[in-house]
Amino acid sequence: MTGQDAASRGWDETRPTAKLLLADGTLIEGEGLGAEGVAAGEICFNTAMTGYEEILTDPSYAGQIITFTFPHIGNVGVNDDDVETVNIAASSGVRGAVFAADVTEPSNWRATRDLDQWLKAKGIVAITGVDTRALTALVRENGAQNAVIGHAPDGEIDEAALKSELAQFAGLEGQDLVPLVAATQRYGWDEGGWAWPGLDVPGAYGRRPEGSPKRVVAIDYGLKRNILRMLTEAGCEVTVLPPTATAEEVLALDPDGVFLSNGPGDPAATGVYAVPMIQGVLEKKVPTFGICLGHQMLALAVGATTAKMHQGHHGANHPVKDMITGKVEITSMNHGFAVDRATLPDNARETHVSLFDGSNCGLELTDRPAFSVQHHPEASPGPQDSHYLFHRFVEMMGAR
Ligand SMILES: NC(=O)CC[C@H](N)C(=O)O
């Protein structure tokens, strides 16, 4: 193999250059990639066959180590266009990555860097040569657990250091990880690309909608870039506010609608400050749409609760049934917590259900113009079946 071949770099091929240690004591050896050092996080597996760059840059993954079940990761390199963090220079907070096959030299006209260099630059510690099928079966059977990866090119990996890093990692439950990845200042997204304060970020992805756009305030809990593109393409002019924005600050912008973004960590912890804002917005009957963490925030705001799932949903082929139309959509998923449907109040009706495990995937309020979904209609990566939800939001604002 080229690129990450140990011998070509003068390393001792007989020694593992990376180790993955799980909280249950499972120790897996492999070849190191990306950043050197030790990093702990909650381990999950993602079953998508494409879109590794979007996955690794999705801020909802902050605090996690991602096992890719698709064996060939890195073959098409990385580029600036497929980044999902809004600020392409920012970190998504992903702690580590686990791959099966060696990463080859990139072979794609869009590639500007190879995955190894990029992981190094992002500070993501990774391991290859892992039996990801066995690891996935373990996580699926025993549930999500904490893990740690150590990477040292000379093979000197101190297992005591791995254990101590693992012991210090608090896990995801009870953790508000939104401040790690969310915007700290208001910014606008429009035709020229980004108005990120103090940063000249290239890339004119946004397009100013034709006619008179709907004015949307998007609350950034760890917003994905493609959500902004989808809102804009559906006819919205988007202003992004930090996660701690109050209802007064949101309403002062007199928005046609409020969007609640995806994001990392335990929704209950973020709900502490997000819920009062959302309740203030709902009180004024401003149309509201939430995705993933935003769905969980809307549920919490109407009095429902969320719970940690066994191993979560992370992939690009999850069937979800729309309970209103009876249609099935194939969706992109990335969540480790779920809304407990038994706790939904009378004014919240369940609109979507996972056909993998029956968990709640959507709700709408019967007395307010508000709805949300657990899956990712913006995809990136994944199927586009659920794009209609962006248009539903625009229609809801139009009907106001
Ligand atoms: N993609 C997301 O918004 C994830 C939401 C939440 N952090 C969860 O794991 O359930």
UniProtKB/TrEMBL annotation:
SMART domains xref list: CPSase_sm_chain (SM01097)
One Gene Ontology MF term: ATP binding
Keyword Ligase included in the entry's annotation: yes
Keywords: Amino-acid biosynthesis, Arginine biosynthesis, ATP-binding, Glutamine amidotransferase, Ligase, Nucleotide-binding, Pyrimidine biosynthesis
Occurrences of domain Carbamoyl-phosphate synthase small subunit N-terminal (ranges): 16-150
Pfam assignment, any one: GATase
Reactions performed catalytically: hydrogencarbonate + L-glutamine + 2 ATP + H2O = carbamoyl phosphate + L-glutamate + 2 ADP + phosphate + 2 H(+); L-glutamine + H2O = L-glutamate + NH4(+)
Self-association state and partner proteins as the record states: Composed of two chains; the small (or glutamine) chain promotes the hydrolysis of glutamine to ammonia, which is used by the large (or ammonia) chain to synthesize carbamoyl phosphate. Tetramer of heterodimers (alpha,beta)4.
Protein name: Carbamoyl phosphate synthase small chain
